[in-house]
Structures are given as C-alpha cells and as structure tokens.
C-alpha cells in the first residue's frame, strides 16, 4: 500500500478544487485503488491510503488538479506495510 500525506495552508483556492477531487476519490475507491482517505480533524492536511503501486499513485497525483492547487502540498508519499488489518 502507498500512503500519501497532504499538507494544507490557508489559501482558500484549494476549496474550489475539492468537490471534483472528492468525486475522483470516490471513483478510485469504487475501482479498488483507494482504501481510505480523509482530512485531519484540524484540516491542516489529509491522509490517503492507496492499494496500488507507486506508478499508479504517481498517475493519480498527476491527473487530479487538487494536488497542485494553491494551498495543497504533497508532503510525503511512502510505501506502507500493514501488519494487522492489511486486507482492508
């Protein structure tokens, strides 16, 4: 699995891109590429967990304008090896 950690700043322009971004997340989840995603409670960033390889995650990040919107920074992309509950 691949985890993507986003950081948000106060630039409100990211909010304009968010509805289309969330629609894309739903379709990625329906296809099985995305396990789960959501913002931190304080809305200073988000975590996305993908069930696909790094190349596919790179395509997803490239094709969704949200990840390059002002106010959004892709802070980290890391492979994760779950020990418990890895079948999610």
From TrEMBL:
SUPFAM superfamilies, alphabetized: Dimeric alpha+beta barrel
Pfam families, sorted: YCII
Domain YCII-related intervals: 12-80
Gene3D superfamilies (UniProt xref): Dimeric alpha+beta barrel
Domain of life: Bacteria
Family: Belongs to the YciI family.
Name under which the protein is recorded: YCII-related domain-containing protein
Organism, scientific name: Stackebrandtia albiflava
């Amino acid at each position: 699995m691949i985890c993507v950690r986003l950081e948000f700043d106060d630039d409100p322009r990211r909010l304009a891109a968010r509805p289309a971004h969330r629609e894309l997340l739903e379709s990625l989840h329906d296809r099985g590429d995305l396990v789960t995603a959501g913002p931190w409670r304080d809305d200073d960033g988000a975590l996305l967990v993908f069930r696909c390889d790094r190349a596919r995650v790179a395509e997803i990040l490239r094709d969704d304008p949200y990840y390059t919107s002002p106010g959004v920074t892709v802070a980290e992309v890391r492979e994760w090896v779950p020990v418990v509950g890895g079948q999610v």
